[in-house]
Amino acid sequence: CGCLCFAVAVKEDGSLGQGRRSDDEATDEAFKTRRHLEIWSLTGAGLYLWSHIIGGELTSSAGGRLSVGQKVIGSWHMRFANGKDLSPSYIRPDTEFLVLALNGRSDATRATLLHWLNQLPSLTQLKGVGLLLIGSENCRNDWLLSQLSSVGRADNLVKCVWMTYDHKLADGHRFFQWPLGVAAYRNFPVQAVAEFSLSQPRPYRCNFLGTVYDGSSRKELRTILNSANEDGLVCFVKIRTKWVPHEKADSMELYTRALKNSDLTLCPVGQNAESYRIYEAMAMGSVPVIEDVDPTHSCQNPVRSDHLLPFHLATTRDIPSGQEVQGPHRLLKSLRAPVIFVKSWSELPAILQKEKSMSLKEISERRAHILQWYKEFLATLNSSFMGSLNSMGDV
Asked: For residues 322 and 241, what is the distance between their CA atoms, to the nearest angstrom?
């Protein structure tokens, strides 16, 4: 299995074990002078980082149980592995730098996270660890502080924590905010801006494909969309009553086609205000219409804008450094994302009427703008991640 065996080895019986250096790597002088990073992922956040932000390629390994890849960026040689069968026991004992992408949403996944943290002190050559975490959907993450303080030396090894949702831990030093991103674990495609027609009209004003829950604002949204379609404001709507964690190939194709063929994508809240749909829409040149409310009532934590993402190159469009920004959607607001926020879906009919009055030129220019913004957003995340790595590597 070549150089990719360095991260995880597949034994003759099909089981997994510690990787090893290939002969080429052991004698390569350039290899010896680089800093080496292992990125181990048990969550879609890791796949989003590797495939969409870093731009790394993936190869299937271990009979499809793992996705692996490697990439050189600057002075860093990165190796990536993703799969539910990964275990701390497979990490090479001479690993110096490690990023773990883990899930901290529930008690069960936090137990897995603690298991990984408890194994870190056994890696005696380890110099720095980064945690990329799916945080709690209610934005209460004090559990992480107690877990870190309970694992002794591992606490000192963890230099950076990138965590999703509008948590209150963001401090600009060790804890940062990270976007949910696209559902890479559902194989949401990596798209290039050049793949989209900017001037071709799209057949739908808007789209909503999703689950409608009892007692949610999505019921009101469904009623409004039914009326809009009756009035000739054509939106693509496909409703289901039960959420499913994984899309089939045909349902994913239908969903991505709806995004590509719609000027607007409607993004109601779920368990949290943030959703994959927001970033998937922008990746397809469709403007997200985002329900700007906090269903948890605990994700409105105000944080200084420069505490959200480290080391990124600020632009004149960003909220000025040091200014407080309040959740929900702090990250999008701090970077002035070209989205439409609504407090109630009762605002949607007026938005659709305005869409109807826009010229194709105006819509095309807006489409080009949101595709460019999202491209720059990925570059911002890349520079922030690499800046954090360089800081961690200067130990």
From this structure: 43
- Our measurement of the distance from residue 282's CA atom to the centroid of its chain's CA atoms, rounded to an integer in Å, reads 13
CA 382 to chain centre: 12
The size of the chain, in residues, is 395
pLDDT digits (tens, 9 = 90+) for 316-346: 566 777 789 998 999 999 999 999 999 999 9
Q: What is the DSSP string of 326-379?
A: -SSSHHHHHTT-S-EEESSGGGHHHHHHHHHHS-HHHHHHHHHHHHHHHHHHHH
Residue 286 near residue 205 (C-beta atoms within 8 A): no
Contacts of 230 (CB under 8 A, 6+ apart): none
Count of C-beta atoms within a 10 Å radius of residue 197: 11
pTM: 0.91
Mean pLDDT throughout 19-35?
A: 61
Q: Are strands 175-178 and 128-134 parallel, antiparallel or unpaired?
A: unpaired
CA 393, distance to chain mean position in Å, is 23
Whose tokens are 């007692």? That residue is: 215
- Amino acid in position 241: T
Q: Supply the DSSP string of 113-173, one letter for each residue.
A: HHHHHHHGGG-TT--EEEEEEE--TTS--HHHHHHHHTTTHHHHHEEEEEEESS-TT--SS
